[in-house]
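Bug #77: duplicate submission created two jobs. Keeping one. Sequence:
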Amino acid sequence: MAHAAGALVAVDNTTATPLGQRPLELGADVSVASDTKAVAGHSDVLFGHISVTDEALWTELQRQRTVSGAIPGPFETWMAHRGLGTLDVRLARQAENAAALVEKLRGHEGVSNVRWPGSPDDPSYAIASRQMRRFGGVFTFELASAELVTRFVEASRLVSAATSFGGLHSTADRRAHWGDPVPEGLIRFSAGLEDSHDLVHDVTAALDRALELPVQ
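Kept job's structure:
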């Protein structure tokens, strides 16, 4: 539809990463990603990339980059390159942890609207499984209020509040805090590389404490 109207299609592929999804092969003109997240993977560098297949478009983008001077330094480039070496194994563990948490949270009292495209029960699974090569570690769920989100994060020993995602450590981000038009208690959770059993136990225990339920 966009091409029929004469528009270019750009896809933010940050969450999926190039290992999880290849937008250019699906018809997009531009694929962009914040490599600060999963690609670099260690939450210690600001980085990003743009990919295109059209040579004329690349020439224009390269010219704009040259004029603006927006190029990474050699040390930042080395840090992102270092992260690429473990991207495959990091994505695998993050997805494993996401799957374990999603399964547990779906039956937890006080938690609602758990969404992860890697779950066969998710409304997005049919489309996601066709266009994605693998699923990542980012999912969402809702608590009843912003106060409960704060109490949950404070009660957790392994999860920290952070806007970024895709790093080594699990993070929780209350998106309404940044003005997103979502419920006050919606959490974007990024599963890290912690031991799956430890992470599931920590998250469920923190939720029990936040909801003032008996800790299992």
